[in-house]
Predict the 3D structure of the following.
Amino acid sequence: MRKDEAVEIRSFFQRLDFRHFSVVDASAFFLKRLKGVLDPEEKRKIIGHTYIDVFEKKVKELEKQHPSITFLGQGTIYPDRIESAQPSKHASKIKSHHNVTLPEKMKLRVIEPLKDLYKDDVRRLGRQLGIPEMLIGRHPFPGPGLAIRILGEVTKERLDILKGADAIFIEELRRFRHYHKVWQALAALLPVRAVGVMGDARTYGYIITLRAVTSVDAMTADWARLPPELLEQVSSRITNEVKGVTRVLYDVTQKPPATIEYE
Ligand code: XMP
């Protein structure tokens, strides 16, 4: 997840007085299972399966005090199903979204009440249900999380670097009042090192790429024309505040041919 996201979500549900709300920090477990894994589809599969393992373990623990827990609710929406679908036997799918990489043998029954809706329908529905704007207006975030924004192996070091860079980008987008002008914004980490200077010394650090897109349904997307002052501020903050980064790039590729995410 993103930096401080678990804390924010927990405090939000506490404010709403949800009594049966639990947070499980399984980050070390996920990292262990992802060790040495480079292939994006393999990452998705491992994450999907680990997610269910963590879920089922927690369910067992909760069932000691609660009646049996039968359902797993997922926020799958229509474009998730389209993009994960295999158009024909011979065509290869673009990527399998996390929601459809669940293990076949699962005790919980998956329910997906939003599966026929587009994002803007989901948002309209949410507003009618009185869900606060702060949640409704959040950018989409992929099920497999930051793992598919770290190209190559996911390690704790890379994850911490990416979290730091991503948090700065989102913070500045909000400060410059551009957060709600884009469909989605993200930072990704490229696992190659470029030269930089620190004082008199030569350093090598990772490259962070920033991507912000405008879109109506994520099926196609255009790169957002963000103001140069905003990009400069983000770049200067990331290279100064996030140790291990020497370059910041801005992605100007449209979808298609690129996708929104990096893996
Ligand atoms: P792409 O990268 O295919 O992304 O252009 C389109 C939209 O889907 C989100 N996305 C995912 N969501 N699991 C998800 O739940 C995934 O594996 C996944 N991959 C991409 C992406 O963030 C964008 O909004």
User: Anything to note?
Assistant: The helical segments are 5-15, 27-34, 40-62, 78-84, 119-128, 133-136, 156-175, 228-241. The chain has one domain: 5-250.
